[in-house]
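Might I ask for a little of your time on a matter of protein folding? Here, with my thanks, is the record as I have it:
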Amino acid sequence: MKIALKEAIIAFKKNEVPIGAVITYKNIIIAKTHNLTETMNNSIAHAEILAISSATKYLGVKYIRKCTMYVTLEPCIMCAGALFWSKIGKIVCGASAIDNNKSFLYNGIKLHPKTIYISGIMKNQCISIIKNFFLFKRIKKL
């Protein structure tokens, strides 16, 4: 999670919503990234989507059943769908979603039945960077 948090900080510095994601396979990092929606001018360039794409390419497989994703914020509905279809083995999440409308749990979206989901790891650090980002955005507008 510490590396995912470092990715979120990189995103913050790029004026991206600060969410970081890391995927491991047999305890080896095979993908690490952060949101790049602004940089790529692409609404689906979320950290989770980019990490899944990178991991499947690295492993040369369609499904990443034996992988673990560490992500700083609860995945949105779109990312939860991508995680479902990737059949990822485990997701370790930092903080719960700030906006319930985008929360996959709040909206009843299911992950793959074999996916293990854990939340609350480094919760305070993960939520802090998100809150600071949006606070900075509001102050900047004043």
